[in-house]
Amino acid sequence: MSKFNDMVEGYYRFRGNEWLEERERWTELASGQSPKVMVIACSDSRVDPATIFGSRPGEVFVVRNVAALVPPFETGGGRHGVSAALEFAVTVLQVEEVLVLGHGACGGVKAALSGDLKQAEPGHGGFVAAWIDLLDDAREKVIHEHGQGPEGQTALEQEGVKVSLSNLMTFPFVQERVEAGKLRLHGAVFAIADGKLRVLQEDGHFEPA
């Protein structure tokens, strides 16, 4: 049996259990959504935000990509998937909080730290390289202070969250709402190894939740 067939079997279980138990909730959601929080997370299969936070359907608006990165505000060139999701969440759904969720053992961060994909062609890591170059400046700082070992990996995972938070503030509609007290930004890193969530504090350090 294929993995997709396994997923369909999982759907049958969901349809016969959770969906029925939450039938009223799903009826409400059929007419629209009104999440209060947006989570920008990594595509990594081990860090599903709904699982980590125990969220119910309709509670969290999620966009996932390699290394949970947010690009700076720009209008030219390329496709702007993260920017589009951010725009929709903030201006249409009017979420009240945005969380950038990094994680331990992140492959995208590892690739950024090593620099191994710098000259890669599309289809051989080139697309990843073009995306994670958002971490280039942070990478230089981390290597200087922590090297390229495990300590550097952890440091760059944390710095990546800070980069994304900084880039969020380059979006005029985000900055406007933050300064008006209508939107709050948060950063955190989930460690797969110990299951702990570390939250970014005002002093720039990450502390266990």
Provide a quick synopsis of the model.
This protein is of the alpha/beta class. The radius of gyration is 18 Å and the shape is globular.
Could you please describe the fold and organization of this structure?
The chain has 10 helices and 6 strands. The protein is an alpha/beta fold and 209 residues long. Strand 5 and strand 6 form a beta hairpin. Helix 8 packs antiparallel against helix 9. The longest helix is centred in the last third of the chain and has 19 residues. The chain is globular, with a radius of gyration of 18 Å.
Which structural class should the secondary elements be placed in? alpha/beta
Low-pLDDT regions: none
The strand order across the widest sheet is 2-1-3-4-5-6
- Topology as H/E string? HHHEHEHEHHHHHEEE
Structural descriptors:
single chain; 209 residues; alpha/beta; six-stranded mixed sheet; 10 helices
Any chance you could write out the topology, listing elements then pairs?
Layout: H1 3-16, H2 18-21, H3 23-29, E1 37-42, H4 49-53, E2 60-65, H5 81-92, E3 97-103, H6 107-114, H7 126-132, H8 136-146, H9 150-168, H10 172-179, E4 184-190, E5 197-200, E6 206-208
Parallel strand pairs: 1-2, 1-3, 3-4
Antiparallel strand pairs: 4-5, 5-6
Helix pairs in contact: 8-9
